[in-house]
Amino acid sequence: MDRIKALRIIENRAAPNCRRVRIFLAEKGIEIPYDQIDIMAGDHFKTEYREKVGTYRVPVLELSDGSFLTESIAICRFFEMENPEIPLFGRTQLEVSLVEMWQRRMEFELLWPIAFVLRHGNPKMTVLEDQCEAWSVANRPRVLVGLETLNKQLTHNQFIVGPNFSVADITAIVAVNFLRTIRVEIPEHLEFLLNWKATVSQRSSIGA
Ligand SMILES: N[C@@H](CCC(=O)N[C@@H](CS)C(=O)NCC(=O)O)C(=O)O
């Protein structure tokens, strides 16, 4: 049976989840065509797109068997299996588990709260969201708790899970860069987080 190949990624360049996949692929040196979809114009809500990919979200990976893979981390895993040389999901039993744990915690405790503040609080986001202002307000303090958590984890670690850069760092740096959309700066006392941000930002993949 022919090996299933990755054909192209459908994404939106400004969207943070798409950025996670771009950084992941840049870390691995994988090149693939990217097709843009204008989510602020609502093009992803169109029936043709939804029926084709099975959801109204981006990013999406189109495969050679005619199927479409969604969810950023599922897409990253597809490429990790194909290109395992630079492991970004961990190496040992414990490291793989810790990367999984921190990747999810960076989603739930940082990226999603930032997204909720933005999507439910910014009038421009009514295109994408049935807004609930109280949910935006409720998530603002959670963002700061998430930043404190990350800073604490970095107190004794070069990267989030020890000496190796991983997909957990990718989710975290995308979240930290996304802070600008809700006009939040990293508090000065979170020095381990600030140092980690400066180090990670120097990687060439971060510009992807
Ligand atoms: N859990 C999904 C989240 C995907 C997601 O929410 N993508 C956003 C862009 S960052 C999107 O498609 N937004 C369109 C919308 O909400 O209508 C993943 O990791 O890929």
Folded structure, characterized:
With 208 residues, this protein is of the alpha+beta class. It has 2 domains: 6-82, Glutaredoxin (3-Layer(aba) Sandwich); 93-207, Up-down Bundle (Glutathione S-transferase Yfyf (Class Pi), Chain A, domain 2). It is built from 7 helices and 4 strands. It has helices at residues 16-28, 47-53, 72-82, 93-121, 133-153, 167-178, 191-201, and strands spanning 6-11, 34-36, 60-63, 68-70. Strands 2-1-3-4 form a 4-stranded mixed β-sheet. It starts with 5 loop residues before the first strand and ends in a 7-residue tail after the last helix. The model has no long low-confidence stretch (mean pLDDT 97). Bound molecules: glutathione.
